[in-house]
Design goal:
Pfam families: CxxCxxCC. InterPro entries: Puta_zinc/iron-chelating_dom. This is Zinc-or iron-chelating domain-containing protein. It is a single chain. It contains 7 helices and 4 strands; from the N terminus they run αααββββαααα. The protein has one domain. Helix content is 41%, strand content 9%. It is mostly helical.
Length: 136
């Protein structure tokens, strides 16, 4: 095991550049995300999806603004304190546990992701970060 890479902080540091806010494939929001964001922006949860989402099949995804980023991105994330699960998880997504080779491709568009990380470290850290997020 490479002792150099133990936690998510060792391989990722968000630069708040907004590249992940481009919504490639859409940022799905869960019912809990909708409740939390609605409280934060003082919006009726029943009107949240029609006002701030598009549908991808049966799942709501956050609408993109005119610049092609999340509707809640304006130089910085305006809902950072209550951002959706998908955003809180980035870049530690399940696909990295199964396919750590995806890290390098993802790092090509995310300046906060360090390149050249061993696959074993990516898998271990991604699984750890996913578990921490799910238990919080």
């Amino acid at each position: 095991m490479d002792c150099k890479f133990q936690t998510g902080d060792d391989i990722f540091e968000c630069t708040q550049c907004g590249e992940c806010c481009r919504g490639f494939g859409g940022t799905y929001v869960t019912p809990e995300d909708i409740k939390r964001i609605s409280r934060f922006i003082k919006c009726d949860p029943d009107t949240f999806v029609p006002r701030f989402c598009d549908m991808s099949g049966s799942r709501p995804v956050l609408t993109l603004n005119k610049k092609g980023k999340c509707v809640f991105f304006d130089e910085l994330c305006t809902i950072h304190e209550v951002k959706p699960y998908m955003c809180r998880a980035w870049p530690f997504i399940q696909t990295l546990v199964d396919h750590p080779e995806n890290w390098e491709a993802m790092a090509g568009s995310c300046p906060g992701m360090k390149k050249g990380i061993p696959a074993e470290a990516i898998q271990r850290i991604a699984a750890l970060e996913i578990k921490k997020l799910q238990s919080s």
